[in-house]
Structure prediction request, 186 residues.
Amino acid sequence: MDSRKPAFRPFSSRSTEEVEKQAYKAAKKGDLETLSYCLAELSPKHRNIELTAWLNITEFAQNLGLHPIDWLEKAAETTSLFTPQTTGEHHLYIILLSRLQGKIPGYGLYVGETSKSPDARFKEHARGKRNRKGPLFSRIVYKHHECLLPTLYNHLNPLSREEAKELEGKIAEALRLEGIPVYGGH
Prediction:
């Protein structure tokens, strides 16, 4: 028996026209996360509609230099299987990486944990922050960071330090098993 939760579908209750409008709006703003969820919702997997809207939005996004993340819904479903057992002052975060060699269109994820907010930690990685002890960033994130993907981790935070460290590795491994390129998760 499969114990998986249903796929994360934030636009499932909206009409096709509303999802199309949201997709175009997300593409214009460069919001890959929302765009990817909208396109997943417009796919034949979820809606019995012609592919015209999906194709038009995909072409529009690609003309803007955006390539939707085709495995984002799978990643959200995978991370939704984890539930926190503790509460504390640590956080998990997941960063979208882009322009990775050998990956088409070059996306991957970085899974990390921190005592800071996910936003603050993302900025340290993106800016290549250092202190007197050395770098506070991951080289892969510094070179390939795109954005945080809060739909993959918000339901877990905040956590105790011990659980954050444990879940960091478990979530990274679960995503890898789904065929998603993952870095971090030590």
